[in-house]
TrEMBL record:
Residues 1-24 form the signal peptide. Belongs to the metallo-beta-lactamase superfamily. InterPro entries: MBL_superfamily_lactonases (IPR051013), Metallo-B-lactamas (IPR001279), RibonucZ/Hydroxyglut_hydro (IPR036866). GO terms for molecular function: hydrolase activity; metal ion binding. Keywords: Hydrolase, Metal-binding, Signal, Zinc. Residues 86-273 form the Metallo-beta-lactamase domain. Pfam families: Lactamase_B. This is Glyoxylase-like metal-dependent hydrolase (Beta-lactamase superfamily II). PANTHER family: QUORUM-QUENCHING LACTONASE YTNP-RELATED (PTHR42978:SF6), QUORUM-QUENCHING LACTONASE YTNP-RELATED-RELATED (PTHR42978). It comes from the Bacteria. It comes from Stakelama sediminis.
Length: 304
């Protein structure tokens, strides 16, 4: 019964993401590319879209009163009737490789990752490796163009073996699976897959969800994927159930464990759904955590 309900919640979330139907859902944003460094590697935070989720108890604070969720938002100075999420991806340039981590919602839904990539001076053909944190539509949608063809035809595409198996079982993902199957090289998390890039298993949000540890010359950045979603609620109340998590209990356990470690280690992170550009630190705050951004969005030189 429990499992059936979880699957239904997940299926609904996926359907929403893949069809972009919704009261709430994806909203267009201007493209943006914000560069920064990790050791000798040049990274770029790439903007794709935004999500606006209503505070209706279905996604954030599942099972909690709406007023409790509103309280957390109010204390952070945010609107109390909706939760704003960014949808971003991360580019890593290293000798011999141009690596894209996650791909946004895709041009069919209105995602402008490709324009952001152009702002970063990178053509799709130049991407050598695409690493996926998990197979939800806001991370794999951009693997294909609006016509369904592979968006990064020269890249090796990688996700965990568990996630690839799970993705292939979802009808909503069939077009993408078909388009990229020949490029897919799934991995077992825990060992480096590129110089300085190691996938770390963080199950719960999806069965094969991973974060990516990036290291160069002793400097680190951890792409947390969807371990957290809202820079306000996911951090203030990590113990609250998250409707997008396939397994809410495992998602919560993973979230608390990862946040505790990130705060203790003062580790710099990239969070694809935190306010753009999504780079900063997790700090202990009260009985939860807080967000300290550490990178300002690049100014759009066109002045728009
Ligand atoms: Zn996501």
């Amino acid at each position: 019964m429990q499992r059936t309900r979880k699957y239904a919640v997940m299926a609904a979330a996926l359907a929403t993401i893949f069809s972009a139907r919704a009261l709430a859902g994806p909203e267009a944003v201007p493209p943006a590319a914000t560069p920064f460094h990790v050791g000798a590697y040049e990274l770029v935070s790439l903007r794709d879209m935004a999500f606006v989720e209503p505070n209706d108890g279905k996604t954030f604070g599942v099972g909690e009163p709406e007023s409790a969720v509103a309280d957390v938002l109010r204390k952070a100075g945010a609107p109390t009737d909706k939760i704003m999420l960014s949808v971003d991806a991360l580019l890593v340039k290293m000798p011999g490789h141009v690596v894209l981590i996650d791909t946004g919602l895709g041009p069919k839904i209105g995602g402008d990752l490709m324009q952001s990539l152009a702002l970063a001076g990178v053509k799709p053909d130049a991407v050598t490796d695409v690493l996926i944190t998990h197979s939800h539509g806001d991370h794999v949608g951009g693997l294909v163009m609006a016509d369904g063809k592979s968006a990064f035809p020269k890249a090796v595409i990688r996700m965990s073996k568990t996630e690839w198996a799970w993705m292939q079982g979802h009808k909503g993902a069939a077009t993408i699976v078909r388009a990229v199957a020949g490029q897919m090289k799934p991995f077992t998390p825990g060992t480096p897959i590129l110089p300085g890039i190691t996938p770390i298993a963080i199950p719960g949000h999806t069965p094969g969800h991973v974060g990516y540890q990036i290291e160069s010359k002793g400097r680190h950045l951890f792409d947390v994927g969807d371990t957290v979603h809202s820079s306000i609620i996911s951090l203030a109340k990590p113990q609250w159930a998250m409707g997008f998590d396939n397994d809410e209990q495992q998602g919560e356990a993973s979230r608390e464990k990862v946040l505790a470690k990130l705060a203790a280690d003062h580790e710099r992170i990239f969070a694809p759904h935190f306010p753009y550009p999504g780079v900063g630190y997790i700090v202990k705050k009260g009985d939860g955590y807080g967000w300290v951004p550490d990178l300002k969005p690049a100014v759009d030189k066109t002045g728009e």
